[in-house]
Design brief:
Helix content: 55-70%
Number of strands: 2
Domain Flagellar motor switch protein FliG N-terminal: 14-116
Radius of gyration: 25 Å
Oligomer: single chain
Largest sheet: 2 strands, antiparallel
Strand order of the largest sheet: 1-2
Distance between the termini: 39 Å
Strand content: under 5%
Domain Flagellar motor switch protein FliG middle: 124-191
GO molecular function: cytoskeletal motor activity
Organism: Rhodomicrobium udaipurense
Number of helices: 20
Keywords: Bacterial flagellum, Cell membrane, Cell projection, Chemotaxis, Cilium, Flagellar rotation, Flagellum, Membrane
Structural class: mainly alpha
Length: 337
């Protein structure tokens, strides 16, 4: 994001960083802005307040462009980095040292506790490669903290698995300090490094973020991107998944999708659909489920357009979640999924 943005031609007008921040805070509304302001320092709040008071009218197109620029910068590697040190620095600006130490002790403890579920999101062979460099006792402890089914995928690819299993029979108590150190090492040396090495590019990340916006916000962001970065906007659109894309899915993935959605949430999403798409979706369901939905559609409830859109958004969100878990494929070019 550049430091200034020309928004008028006659005469030229520029928005500073504080002006941009003020515009975004005003755009998200008082309730959301009130949640953000406590995270700013007193001087930052003063600067934003001064900018907001003199900002005047800002065209919607410019607000959209600021939001689009911010979204792209947020998604770029290195655009924004959250860390314990960054949080501590922020808190130190507004809180007494003793209170900062107390908060950070809790924050770091929670960050480390989150290691184990995140570890299970990694491929077993990646964890095995990391553990093979560690002492058998460390391997034993890590396996004892993971789900049995997940540990069972790791054990066969550990060279010293026999020794590890023997040690597991006589597991000794481990001090809290050693546990915290191990959790921090796993987070810093394994989870974060894997995430950085295999992370998605900015377009994929933007597509996933925009996918989860409501329809109005989605179109605002995409329109802004198309105005200032048409080629990148096209790449983002091609990576997105919306309810209408269900028609492009393979039959196998479609069946799996609707097996994971409550039947009472499907009927509202089908209201107003083209008969061809509706039949395609209904054909992906078990006979009994289809019959119940057809009966509901025969005497449809009175729903607003927003309620129907919400139901369709819920279906698309489930599809995205299942895709991220590897249960279904949203690769429309792949007919084998």
């Amino acid at each position: 994001m550049t430091d200034t943005l020309i928004i008028d031609q006659e005469p030229p007008r520029q928005l500073s960083g504080a002006d941009r921040a003020a515009a975004l805070l005003l755009a998200v509304g008082a309730e959301n802005a009130s949640k953000l302001l406590p995270h700013l320092g007193e001087e930052d709040i003063r600067a934003v307040a001064r900018s907001a008071s003199r900002l005047g009218a800002v065209p919607q197109a410019i607000v959209n462009q600021i939001a689009g620029d911010f979204l792209l910068q947020l998604s770029n590697e290195g655009g924004l980095k959250g860390s314990g040190d960054a949080i501590e620095g922020l808190l130190s600006r507004v809180l007494p040292p003793a209170q900062v130490r107390q908060i950070m002790a809790d924050v770091r403890a929670r960050m480390n506790e989150a290691v184990w579920p995140r570890l299970e999101e990694l491929p077993p062979h990646v964890i095995a490669q990391f553990l093979n460099r560690e002492h058998p006792q460390v391997i034993t402890f890590v396996l004892s903290k993971l789900r049995i089914s997940f540990s069972a995928e790791i054990v066969p690819i550990i060279p010293n698995r026999n020794e590890v299993m023997r040690r597991m029979l006589t597991t000794k108590l481990v001090t809290q300090g050693a546990i915290r150190l191990l959790e921090q090492t796993l987070r810093d040396e394994l989870i974060l490094k894997v995430a950085k090495a295999t992370g998605q590019n900015s377009h994929e990340r933007v597509a996933k973020i925009v996918n989860r916006l409501n329809r109005k916000a989605m179109e605002d962001v995409l329109q802004s991107l198309e105005t200032c970065r048409p080629k990148e906007a096209e790449m983002v659109r091609n990576l997105m998944f919306t309810f209408s894309d269900i028609a492009k899915m393979s039959e196998k993935s479609r069946i799996e999708l609707f097996e994971n959605i409550e039947a009472d949430r499907i009927a509202p999403a089908l209201l107003g659909l083209d008969d061809g798409i509706k039949e395609l979706i209904l054909s992906s369901m078990p006979t009994r489920t289809r019959r119940n939905i057809e009966q509901e559609l025969a005497n449809p409830p009175r729903l607003t357009e927003e309620e129907i859109e919400t139901a369709r958004r819920e279906v698309a969100d489930v599809a995205l979640k299942l895709s991220e878990q590897g249960i279904i494929s949203l690769n429309f070019a792949d007919g084998s999924n």
